[in-house]
Amino acid sequence: GIEENGCTIGIDIGTQGAKAILYHPASQTIIARSSAKYDLDQQQDTSDNRRAEQHPAKWIQALHDILKELSLTINEKNLIVKSIGTSGQQHGLVALDNKYNVIRPAKLWCDVEASEEADSFSQAATRKMGKQWNIPAGFTAPKALWMKENEPKNWEKVRWIILPHDYVNLCLRSGIGHDFSAPSSLENHSLNVDFVSIFPCTDAGDASGTGIFDPVSRDYVKDLADLIDEKYVAALPKILSPSEVYGNVSPLWKQALNIDSENEHPIIISVGSGDNMMSALGSKCVSEGNAVLSLGTSGTIFGVSSAPVETGTSVAPFCDATGKHLPLVCVMSCTGVLNSVLENWCSSSEKNGAISHEEASTLAANFEPGCCGLTFLPYLSGERTPNWPNATGALLGLTAQTMKCMSSPGLIYRAALEGITFLLADALEQMRQCCDGFDPKSIFVVGGGSRNKFWRQMIADIFQLELRFPLEPESAALGAAFQAGAAFTGVSVEDYILQQKVEMEDTVVKPTTDEDTLKMYKEAFERYKASSKKLFSDHVENKN
Prior knowledge:
Elements: E1 6-13, E2 17-24, E3 29-37, E4 53-54, H1 56-76, E5 80-88, E6 94-96, E7 106-107, H2 115-129, H3 140-150, H4 152-157, E8 160-162, H5 164-174, H6 184-187, E9 201-203, H7 204-207, E10 213-214, E11 219-220, H8 222-228, E12 238-240, E13 245-248, H9 251-257, E14 268-270, E15 273-274, H10 275-282, E16 290-295, E17 299-303, E18 316-319, E19 325-331, H11 335-345, E20 347-348, E21 353-354, H12 357-364, E22 375-378, E23 393-396, H13 400-405, H14 409-434, E24 442-446, H15 453-463, E25 466-468, H16 475-489, H17 493-498, H18 515-540
Parallel strand pairs: 1-5, 5-14, 5-15, 9-12, 16-24, 24-25
Antiparallel strand pairs: 1-2, 2-3, 4-7, 6-8, 10-11, 13-14, 16-17, 17-19, 18-19, 20-21, 22-23
Helix pairs in contact: 2-3, 2-8, 10-16, 11-14, 12-14, 14-15
């Protein structure tokens, strides 16, 4: 174990900012936390909104800010940091030269500039593999192909193509960025690094989002990397096992952060992983039968499976951070759609404007499941699961009777909630079909939407699963702190996490057993599936 004055740090390098948690294993509590915000890089050409880039300098500046803030508590309480773990946004392309200098800003997961490259790569990969191999534009491999085709001079300089969390770990170990002053200090650093013993590494979880990774062998597929360039496979970071130690934090960083500035104790760096994998660890979702539903602007469902996902489906074939698999689906239409409905359609004459989600939910409870025959298709910005980028929202089933009921904003709000929940339930069904080992018995629900009590019961009833609610909002940073603890103690990640206490709400929402309610939801769900397929499935799905 870790003694009384020992602690671990978990870092999460996100798209909009970085967060850190100081975790005390002896008491199983979070002692301190810190955060720093940053934005996407401003683009000179604003005509193409598909580009989303971030210079790694933003992460390194944030790393200084959040760890210096934690150092105040560490020194005040005489704590000894034993280990540090990093969670990072998945799929981002970080290009480095042979001296680990940053060649260009990182292309992020939400950068879809490589959509044409994704199509051509997916077709070539499908032929090469002899089975469907559909890779979205957000994954890393299409971005590498885009860079080779659009920036040949930059591509010539490439020695490494790594992921955001890999880069942060590399900096912490090598000392790069300890004296950070400006982006240029990462583009041409003056450090004398031992390039033989210190090199980029990753884990199977984050590597499984590259598009050239086989979840069964848990390794890169050289034939797929060669489709992009024969040097690509040698540019990829080495994959370490879930409990492996990447190295120790450089004394240069310790001095810069004022954490063990005399370098008396080694601080080990765990292997790290992608944010979804770390979020699973921080929610204690490490055993089969567990899954997490995140209700944010987009909706995500992921869960643990001992069996890999079939490739070529809408379910991402990720690995988790314990040595198992993490099937994942993401739907674009979630709380963002609900906010649009509330702002534009749910106004109250007495209140002079929009009502709150709580008020709308109270009104929605006056209507029965199925919304008097109304069906709301929530694809206001297209959809990725199913792959219907050109789909739109739709309100179906309007009759003289439903028009009368629509005088209350509760009906349209309930229809929107049901439409989003049916979309998520359909995604859950696909996950069960595509992955033999995935069959959750209960779901941990996180994200802003999880606070809506009325929606909670609806989800439990439609999913027919029990819902539980983890209290820690920064589950990825907490997961990184847990992984760091496992690396220090030498215990397997899964066993270590099962020993930790993850705070949950007392409330457990159980699904209804009322037959009438179940029948109404079943009919409404079938109506939703039939309508959406009729409108959108023919002309856009499976273009690969």
